[in-house]
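Researcher: Here's a chain I'd like modeled. Treat it as a single chain, no partners, no ligands.
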Amino acid sequence: MSKYYKKQSITSNGELISGRTIKLYSPFKEGRGYNFKYKSLNVRSYLDIPLPECFTDSEVGKIYRLTRSIYSSTNLLAYRSAGKIYPLNKEDVRKIVALHRNNFNPFWHKVINNKVIKPIILDSDEYFCFNPIYFNTTVYLPVYLYIAFQGELKEHLPEWVVKKYLDMQGENEKGAK
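Model: Modeled as a single isolated chain. Structure tokens:
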């Protein structure tokens, strides 16, 4: 049930200048239910692009657990503290997946070698970034994600998009010089 309220603008001598009725947002819609958005973060994975077959079910679960640590819409494993974004390091990742270091290193090398996660440098910090083919939190694919995963993305993106990203990459390199 939506609620309405009436907004009126009245002058000091009581004249009505304008009036309008505005509908307030209601999180409950009849027939659909309650819009439950508690600290929502959408992580999309694509049904026609599964994770590589070499991962066991346990490893797939650990990878999915890592997706819960993607910061906002960046695809980066990071956290925010005191208004600044900090990258998760390997030890943080190891704690999230709850593996002993002897078991973590083979798992981590498998994830890196299969290009599910890749280390990238942003603002002189090393971040671990999820491949947007497998897990994506962005609406628009940023240039840094394209650059990091361009080999994997080329076969999934149209040629004109690849050309646009290459043009954008060239402009960024010219601006950095």
